[in-house]
Design a protein that fits this description.
By secondary structure, the protein is α+β, with helices and mostly antiparallel strands. The protein contains 12 helices and 8 strands.
Length: about 375
């Protein structure tokens, strides 16, 4: 039976100095805004901040210099992400392109695709979205129904994607499409780079219950995609997309989305907090630290060339549970101890996370799907 194996997080020397550099950058460039924007900040889009990050070399850090990257160590990149998220920096505009789209093209894309897209991503100027989920499919990714038909001039794409984060800002989608005639489930799937300004593409906003616009529906009506925009081999999409999901599930964003509330709780509690609050701060800090060690170990395995699909699923499942529990337990503990009716940073962050945190376990695979992966990985099913 497999277990969660820990690989030491061993970045190159100079990480302490790198942290200080990133903190100085954030202090200089982070735009002013409501305290609630510091929570779940990897969904907060700010093109100016992304361009400043790109100019400083903090996007595409590990990529070859030929593609606009910095050829930095992968664990240096992890440190930068951790600092950005802990500070609540608005990184949502470029997040998906840096985290998934770029690495996917480095691994499976053509040289033409890499030279065309990656330098602009690294500059913080090109943004991408993920075309996986579809209506009526839930988290059953293998039930993709969007069709791709090969023609003499390229591929004709017809179908619909749902829950496409940042599609309203993105220029590019990497879409999973069924190209095999009469294929079923994992067979006959292919990934394509789709220019969202192409004729036949329609992006419609999906407004959440608190009025936020993170998600979108994207419709494809006989959209022509050149074969040069196919990613990898035709029919190999399932293998490619499952490898991509390890990048999506294991990072520090999977336990830091609610971190701003813990920071505010410590701030408003002062140096001598109520014993109940002190105990809660200690418990939440210990849980966050444990999740951090698990996430860092998973990052170390990715950096070493391993495929930590099991560990990534564990980090996401446990991290989502922590992120969702944090606002609930804080609300219960502070009831009667703090005035939540005022317009304070603490009250705004708490109110925001109580409304949006239920969605955290949906993105990147639902809890049920993840626990199925974990059960198989542990030999329990």
């Amino acid at each position: 039976m497999r277990t969660f194996s820990i690989l030491p997080f061993s970045p190159p020397p100079g990480v302490a100095a790198l942290r200080e550099q990133v903190r100085a950058f954030i202090a200089e460039h982070r735009p002013p805004g409501d305290a609630a924007r510091r929570a779940n900040c990897w969904a907060v889009a700010d093109a100016g901040f992304s361009r400043a990050l790109g100019a400083a070399g903090y996007i595409g850090m590990t990529w070859p210099k030929a593609y606009g990257g910095g050829e930095r160590h992968p664990l240096e990149r992890y440190v930068v992400l951790e600092e950005l998220l802990a500070a609540g920096a608005p990184v949502g505009m470029h997040w998906i392109a840096d985290r998934q789209s770029g690495p996917l093209l480095l691994r499976y894309g053509t040289e033409e695709q890499r030279l065309r897209f990656l330098p602009a991503v690294a500059r913080g100027e090109l943004y991408a979205c993920i075309g996986m989920s579809e209506p009526g499919s839930g988290s059953d990714l293998a039930s993709v129904r969007t069709q791709g038909r090969r023609t003499p001039e390229g591929w004709r794409i017809n179908g619909q994607k749902l829950w496409t984060t940042n599609a309203h800002n993105a220029q590019l989608m990497i879409a999973l499409v069924r190209t095999g005639e009469d294929s079923q489930r994992q067979e006959g799937l292919t990934q394509f780079l789709i220019d969202l300004s192409s004729p036949g593409v329609t992006v419609r906003p999906t407004i959440d219950l608190v009025g936020g616009h993170d998600f979108n529906e994207v419709f494809f009506d006989d959209v022509l995609v050149p074969d040069s925009m196919r990613v990898g081999e035709a029919g190999a999409g399932w293998r490619q997309v499952t490898a991509e999901l390890s990048l999506e599930r294991s990072g520090p964003e999977r336990y830091l989305s609610s971190f701003a509330l813990l920071v505010e709780l410590i701030r408003v509690s002062g140096p001598t907090p109520d014993p109940i609050i002190a105990g809660l701060i200690g418990r939440l800090t210990a849980e966050a630290w444990t999740l951090r060690q698990m996430s860092m170990s998973t990052a170390a395995k990715l950096a070493a060339g391993e495929d930590p699909a099991l560990e990534a699923a564990m980090v996401k499942d446990l991290g989502n549970s922590f992120e969702q529990e944090l606002p609930r337990v804080v609300q219960a503990a502070v009831d009667g101890r703090f005035d939540l009716s005022g317009d304070t940073d603490f009250a705004r962050v708490l109110a925001f996370l109580l409304q949006v945190s239920p969605s955290f376990s949906l993105r990147g695979g639902t809890r049920e799907v993840l626990r199925g992966i974990i059960a198989r990985g542990l030999g329990l099913r």
